Amino acid sequence: MQSSIDTLINFTADKDLKAIAQKVKDQQRITDEEGVILFEKASLGFAGTLANFIRERLHGDTTYFNRNFHIEPTNVCVFSCKFCSYSRLYAQKEEGWELSIEDMLNIVKTYDGKPITEVHIVGGVHPKMNMDYFIELMQKIKAHRPELHVKAFTAVELDYMFRKAKLTVEEGMKRLHAAGLDSLPGGGAEIFAPEIREQIAGDKVNAEGWLRIHEVAHELGMHSNATMLYGHIEKYEHLVDHMSRLRDLQDKTHGFNTFIPLKFRNHNNDMSHVPESTITEDMRLYSIARIYLDNFPHLKAYWPMLGRDNAQLSLSFGVNDIDGTIDDSTKIYSMAGSEEQTPKMSTEELVTLIKQVKRRPVERDTLYNVVKDFSNEVFVAQPAAHLN
User: Distance between CA atoms of 188 and 186, rounded to whole angstroms?
Assistant: First the structure.
């Protein structure tokens, strides 16, 4: 019986696509040019078949999630990214929110006794929330709950912190790591190509600065994630260029855990005139990312951004991780018009979502160590509770 990829190779007439499919079967890396060809020529079915082949070769039916929660210290920001619906400029700070260290520590304390493994801390770049402020926050979190993994601060936030403190990237990362920073999220990458980045986020750290911060984190033994904002004014070559830079750094450091494509949402921002990508385009993007990024172990779909049904669908297009319970009122995507206005799923809901598409739900920690396999878990009906 022929495998799906053999059938694809045999029945694909286009010689470029046939060669790419053969490379995928043989576990050979595709080139940047071939990445662009996939965007230009590959149907959703073609790209999806290759991506699912890679996904199942790497992970079988395993689909990861974690039990986490988000803290967003502020949405007040000194930067003015055109795609952002979330932040409020410092001059209009009365329209935003600012949490104190005590406020944030109280959020952490609400999870005492609950099986949470990670706190994810990102927000706007507030001039008064400097490095000393966040060092104190992390030290208090670690003093209260030492085993809680702190994944915090985009490279944009870190670049501002370091410049304000007059520290090198190396000095700043060492100080934060010593204070309790365990790993970095992947935000702030947007699109690396300067001709696009300057149009949508020209005042924030550039591609070289973003990559350098992650490289230093990896050198210190920390892991990180990587993102890419897609579906706005970029062209195919910009997407491939972005992934190429990430692939090159991963070859060097092996420090990235996962790649997370982030869909541009056009509500309530300065790019509302730009139409959003279709679900077909979304799934094709996930598929091509899985094919191209051969050295990234995981591909994640951030379900609050895609919505639950589309996150479920992505598990057939290369994705093997759908993030976590979130369990908060994160506003980064809801303010931009995403389907999830109050993104929160219980463990039972996440497990059920994964099982419905015949995948195996496995709880992980931030570094993808297995916490629990939920394949055979049977949930007992009970009254609604906070984070079942």
Answer: 7
Q: Residue 358 and residue 315: Cα distance in Å, rounded? A: 10
Quick check: 172 and 206 in contact, CB under 8 A?
no
C-alpha–C-alpha distance, residues 49 and 8, integer Å: 8
Residues 285-313 have pLDDT tens digits of: 999 999 999 999 999 998 888 888 999 99
> Domain 62-373 falls in which CATH fold?
TIM Barrel (3.20.20)
Strand-by-strand arrangement of the 149-152 sheet: 68-71, 118-121, 149-152, 183-184, 223-230, 256-263, 298-299
Are 183 and 222 a contacting pair, CB within 8 Å?
yes
CA angle 375, 376, 377 (to 5 degrees): 100
User: How many angstroms separate the CA atoms of 218 and 288, rounded?
Assistant: 25
* Domains of the chain by residue range: 62-373
What was the pLDDT predicted at 356?
A: 94
pTM score: 0.90
Geometric angle at alpha carbon 104, from 366 and 83, rounded to 5°: 70
